[in-house]
Amino acid sequence: MALSDLATPGVAIASVARNRIPRIGVIVALLWLALLAVGALVAAAGLTADPLTNDYTVISQAPSLAHPFGTDNLGRDVFSRSLHGAGSSAVVALVTVFVGGGLGILLGVWAGLRRGIADAITGFLTDVTIALPSLIIVATVVTLAGPSLPTISLTIAAFAIPVFARLSRSATLSIAAENYVVAARTLGASGWRILTREVLPSVLPVMMPFLMTTLATAIISEGALSFLGFGLRPPEPSWGGLIAEGRTQLALAPWVTLLPALLLCVTILAINVLGEHLREAKR
């Protein structure tokens, strides 16, 4: 009997263990995001406590069955406000991915296929935009236009466009050299058909890990804006705003800051786990 035969079961067990742990992590991440989405929808439907109603009989009350995350210094339910904040973060993240990602990927694929002057101009504009201090500009735009959810979402999405464009252009350059794309060109397929039917379906799987990263980045950006006072106007709930509101109450009511911050951290972790899984699957 060869030594390799003896080693094979151990290698197989180690391989199964390595594969099982990531799968468990992905399942847990999916369950968490699904649970959070259901909670945000339930809150949006008005099935939780009113996040804006003050109840001075339960000011700074510790977490309990009636108030799972406790109450703040105005008697508002922190759990309900956290779920509504999750909805706001989800809107910002989804708008960033669909608007910023959609436009950026189309622009990058188009530039990668056209090359020449179109590619040079697109590359110059993306380089200039990426070099700008995005958070400062977003804060300025939100201040001038008013801190509404559409303004915050679209402004953050605008700064995602050049990053998606650069990455999708890079992917397009390699995909455009594939035989099936060359064959489509030889057969006289239009540029739009090549873009939508040949190249884009191959670029999207490559971009999926970055799409997940962008979800997390958009949520963090919205939270940072709210924390700095450039997000939704109080008393509208957002995760960053809740964390900022609780800073003055850390000694008396630490749950006002810590529990929304925990939701934010776990959500970002779940999204990153899914993004890493997609990245490994692509490899």
UniProtKB/TrEMBL annotation:
<dbReference type="InterPro" id="IPR000515">
    <property type="entry name" value="MetI-like"/>
</dbReference>
<comment type="similarity">
    <text>Belongs to the binding-protein-dependent transport system permease family.</text>
</comment>
<protein>
    <submittedName>
        <fullName>Peptide/nickel transport system permease protein</fullName>
    </submittedName>
</protein>
<keyword id="KW-0812">Transmembrane</keyword>
<keyword id="KW-0813">Transport</keyword>
<dbReference type="GO" id="GO:0055085">
    <property type="term" value="P:transmembrane transport"/>
</dbReference>
<keyword id="KW-0472">Membrane</keyword>
<dbReference type="Pfam" id="PF00528">
    <property type="entry name" value="BPD_transp_1"/>
</dbReference>
<feature type="transmembrane region" description="Helical">
    <location>
        <begin position="148"/>
        <end position="165"/>
    </location>
</feature>
<keyword id="KW-1003">Cell membrane</keyword>
<dbReference type="GO" id="GO:0005886">
    <property type="term" value="C:plasma membrane"/>
</dbReference>
<feature type="transmembrane region" description="Helical">
    <location>
        <begin position="24"/>
        <end position="47"/>
    </location>
</feature>
<feature type="transmembrane region" description="Helical">
    <location>
        <begin position="252"/>
        <end position="274"/>
    </location>
</feature>
<dbReference type="InterPro" id="IPR050366">
    <property type="entry name" value="BP-dependent_transpt_permease"/>
</dbReference>
<keyword id="KW-1133">Transmembrane helix</keyword>
<feature type="transmembrane region" description="Helical">
    <location>
        <begin position="90"/>
        <end position="113"/>
    </location>
</feature>
<dbReference type="InterPro" id="IPR035906">
    <property type="entry name" value="MetI-like_sf"/>
</dbReference>
<feature type="transmembrane region" description="Helical">
    <location>
        <begin position="210"/>
        <end position="232"/>
    </location>
</feature>
<feature type="transmembrane region" description="Helical">
    <location>
        <begin position="120"/>
        <end position="142"/>
    </location>
</feature>
<feature type="domain" description="ABC transmembrane type-1">
    <location>
        <begin position="86"/>
        <end position="275"/>
    </location>
</feature>
